[in-house]
Each structure stands twice: as structure tokens, then as C-alpha cells.
Design brief:
single chain, about 230 residues, alpha/beta, five-stranded parallel sheet, four-stranded antiparallel sheet, 8 helices, about 20% strand, binds calcium ion
């Protein structure tokens, strides 16, 4: 699966150069020219990684990084901070903001790619850890789901749905967001298909008395909640 990278940089020439090199390295790349545009892009679709310039016109890259890492829905986005300064104290405050790594301008695209791959590998391995929410445990590697009563039998689509929900508890997903993330943006299926699979998922969970975790939010979509 291609990884999605968001480049946040106000200087068009640098942003364009970064985007060009990343696309050539086979990443899906989106660009944002300031923190506001970055927040919008992140809300639309979570990137796997964001490259954030320290100096942005509307708010600092540091603030943006803190916001991403403090927000439960976005904190798994890996972040590489870019700065023109090389002082050690900047490096420390960059990392204490929650950035996963740090590069100093000027840097080679080779150096940046090495950092990106290292950061993505690290965040990938934490993504392979089993997720437990309430009485449910989902293993992303073996694709098995169980409760204290035993294994939950799920089809592949229901598994992907449940995984998405368990990765982002309390977050409401609209039908089109679910279609986009579970079926993929290129697949054409009707919104109603989502409801069919939600029903199947609930049915499978019902046997373990945890179907209440999948909640309908009227007029908005669905969420996973223990409450
Ligand atoms: Ca800048």
C-alpha cells in the first residue's frame, strides 16, 4: 500500500521540490502551505507521515506538531520536523513537541528519505501490536479478533471496519469516510453497502455481547465507543 505524506511548507519552491522527490520515491503526496491548510488536509484524510517546516506564516510548525500529537484522532501521524536552525536546543524542543524525527536545512533528499523510511518502519511496528478496547482484542497481524468468550468470526470487510474503529475510538466516521478507508477511494459502492457490513459486524459482535460498541450517530455516521 502506498504511504501518504503531507508536506507542510510555505516556501513554494522547497515544497514543490520535496513533493517531487517524494512522488518519485513512490509516496502519495499532499501539500499544505500553512498550518491551517495542514489541519484541513489532516481532517480530510490522515496521512501516514507529515513533514512540517518549523517556520510557517500562520502558526509555528512546533504548534502544529503539538496539536497533531495531542489530538487522539491524529496522534499516530508520524512527524518529521524541518528547520533552518541547527542549534541543539531547537532540536530538543522540536522533539519534545512530539516530532518523531528532525532534519536541518539544507538536507539531501536521500537523507530525508532515509529518515522517512526509518520513522515509518517504527510507526508500522507499533501498528502491528494487538489493539484491546473493552472486552475486544484485535490482532492486526493474524487478523484474529477475540473477547473473553473466545474468537469472533468476521469477514474481511468487517475486520477492516472494526480495525479502523478500534484504532480511532470515539471518532465518528461518515459513510463516505468509511467507504474511502475500508473499500478505498477508487472503488465504487453505494453508501448502503456500509450499512450492510455494519449490520454484519454488529451481528458477529452480538454473539459476544459487545455489539453496543458500534454506535450509530444520527445524521453523522458510526463510531466505536465503550460508553
Ligand atoms: Ca518556512
Amino acid at each position: 500500500m502506498r504511504r501518504d505524506i503531507l508536506v507542510v511548507e510555505d516556501e513554494g519552491a522547497i515544497r514543490g521540490m520535496l513533493a517531487f522527490n517524494l512522488r518519485r520515491a513512490d509516496f502519495d503526496v499532499r501539500e499544505a502551505e500553512d498550518a491551517g491548510a495542514a489541519r484541513k488536509a489532516i481532517a480530510e484524510r490522515l496521512p501516514d507521515l507529515a513533514i512540517i517546516d518549523w517556520m510557517l506564516p500562520d502558526s509555528s510548525g512546533l504548534e502544529l506538531t503539538r496539536w497533531i500529537k495531542r489530538t487522539p484522532e491524529t496522534r499516530d501521524v508520524a512527524i518529521i520536523m524541518v528547520t533552518a536552525r541547527s542549534q541543539e536546543e531547537d532540536k530538543i524542543s522540536g522533539l519534545s513537541s512530539g516530532a518523531d524525527d528532525y532534519v536541518t536545512k539544507p538536507f539531501s533528499s536521500r537523507e530525508l528519505l532515509a529518515r522517512i523510511n526509518a520513522v515509518l518502519r517504527r510507526s508500522q511496528s507499533s501498528r502491528e501490536d494487538p489493539i484491546t478496547r473493552g472486552r475486544l482484542t484485535l490482532n492486526p497481524v493474524s487478523h484474529r479478533v477475540h473477547t473473553d468468550k473466545g474468537a469472533v468470526a468476521l469477514g474481511p470487510t468487517e475486520f477492516r471496519l472494526l480495525r479502523l474503529f478500534m484504532e480511532r475510538p470515539e471518532r465518528v466516521f461518515s459513510r463516505s469516510q468509511l467507504l474511502d478507508r475500508v473499500w478505498g477511494p477508487a472503488v465504487f459502492v453505494e453508501d448502503r453497502t456500509v450499512d450492510v457490513h455494519i449490520r454484519r459486524l454488529r451481528k458477529a459482535l452480538e454473539a459476544h455481547e459487545v455489539d453496543r460498541y458500534i454506535q450509530t450517530v444520527r445524521g453523522a455516521g458510526y463510531r466505536f465507543s465503550l460508553q
